[in-house]
Write a structure and sequence with these properties.
The chain is an alpha/beta fold and 263 residues long. It is built from eleven helices and seven strands. The protein has a single domain, classed as 3-Layer(aba) Sandwich (Rossmann fold).
Length: 263
């Protein structure tokens, strides 16, 4: 029997792990999944931030818990995965969102800073995806993985934005998404990426203030930056059965910036 649109988007009975979920885009996506009925595990490095985030989610009627772990460290990643599986029994939806950036001209970019960005932004995605797939999604014959890339991974650095490691890592996330989708389709696991533009997150606010919010908004066809709702719809599409025939894809959520920059 063909399901209704409400049934296709319903996540009741599903479990989701959202890294970098204590604030910003991660918390927005946790809200989206929880509002659709999923049980949520949010993660970041700082327990105090996570306590605030979980209180916010619970106040919205969402069943949420947290685990503090550093997704740049393999031992922490595996502990996060194992503890989530121990508490939830399974992970149906994995959102790889934890990320870092570093600003420096390429010729002066510190190698340790390059390693820090790469370890969190792409190596961490691989280790956590591998662990969750091997110990939950493959045995359970299905799952959804959502990787957070960036429009910076589509075109390279705009002039004046010296973030070579970040840009490189986000380009890698897009091909990582395609590769996993091709390998894990036989297991009914979909793997897709979101490429956000500029949102007023803690990571981006310094650059936004330096370049000017009005100027940056004017560079988008929709004449604004992203807000606290703009990732919700796509996150739910990728996570739910409404998107069950979509895999290996990326979509920019950027107000049209990538249209005018030629991505």
């Amino acid at each position: 029997m063909t399901r209704t649109i409400q049934q296709l988007f319903d996540l009741k009975g599903k479990t989701a792990l959202v890294t970098g979920g204590s604030r910003g885009l991660g918390l927005q996506m946790a809200h989206a999944l929880g509002e659709a009925g999923a049980r949520i595990m949010v993660n970041s490095r700082k327990a105090a931030d996570l306590e605030v985030a979980v209180a916010e989610l619970k106040a919205a009627g969402i069943d949420a818990q947290f685990i503090a772990a550093d997704c740049a460290k393999e031992e922490d990643i595996r502990r996060l995965a194992d503890e989530t599986l121990a508490q939830f029994g399974r992970v149906d939806i994995l959102v790889n969102n934890a990320g870092a950036s570093w600003g420096a001209p390429a010729e002066d970019h510190p190698v340790p800073a390059w390693d820090k960005v790469m370890n969190l932004n792409i190596r961490g995605y691989f280790i956590l995806s591998q662990h969750i797939a091997k110990h939950s999604m493959i045995p359970n014959k299905g799952g959804r993985i959502i990787n957070i890339a960036s429009i910076a991974g589509l075109n390279g650095n705009p002039k004046g934005m010296d973030t070579i490691a970040y840009t490189t890592s986000k380009g890698a996330v897009i091909n990582f998404t395609r590769g996993l989708a091709a390998e894990w389709g036989d297991h009914n696991i979909t793997v897709n990426a979101i490429c956000p533009g500029f949102f007023k997150t803690k990571m981006a606010i310094g650059l936004i203030e330096a370049l000017g919010e009005e100027k940056m908004a004017a560079g988008a066809p929709l004449n604004r930056l992203g807000d606290d709702e703009d990732l919700k719809g796509l996150t739910l599409l990728y996570a739910s059965d409404a998107g069950k025939h979509i895999t290996g894809q990326w979509l920019a959520v950027d107000g049209g910036v990538s249209v005018v920059t030629g991505a």
